[in-house]
């Protein structure tokens, strides 16, 4: 599977491949090497979101290297 998107190493947010910084936390530490896409629509109701310390709805990766 092609990983055409990048993931922020700080908050695990999935960002556009042409992004230079994470729109969520502003970090420029983006990785192409990630796995486990999760889409969080209601972070306040999600145990996954709680474990990942996610507070904003969006697409996130479970693992980032
Ligand atoms: Zn981020």
TrEMBL record:
GO terms for biological process: regulation of DNA-templated transcription. Signal peptide: none annotated. Keywords: Elongation factor, Metal-binding, Nucleotidyltransferase, Protein biosynthesis, Transcription, Transcription regulation, Transferase, Zinc. Zn(2+) binds at residues 8, 11, 22, 25. It comes from the Archaea. SUPFAM superfamilies: RNA polymerase subunits (SSF63393). One of its GO terms (molecular function) is zinc ion binding. Gene3D superfamilies: 2.20.28.90. Residues 5-65 form the Spt4/RpoE2 zinc finger domain. Stimulates transcription elongation. Belongs to the archaeal Spt4 family. Heterodimer composed of Spt4 and Spt5. This is Transcription elongation factor Spt4. It comes from Salinirubrum litoreum.
């Amino acid at each position: 599977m092609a990983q055409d998107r990048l993931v922020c190493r700080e908050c695990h947010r999935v960002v556009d491949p042409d992004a230079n910084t994470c729109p969520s936390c502003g970090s420029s530490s983006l990785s192409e090497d990630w796995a486990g896409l999760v889409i969080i629509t209601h972070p306040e109701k999600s145990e996954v979101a709680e474990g990942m310390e996610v507070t904003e709805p969006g697409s996130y990766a479970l693992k980032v290297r």
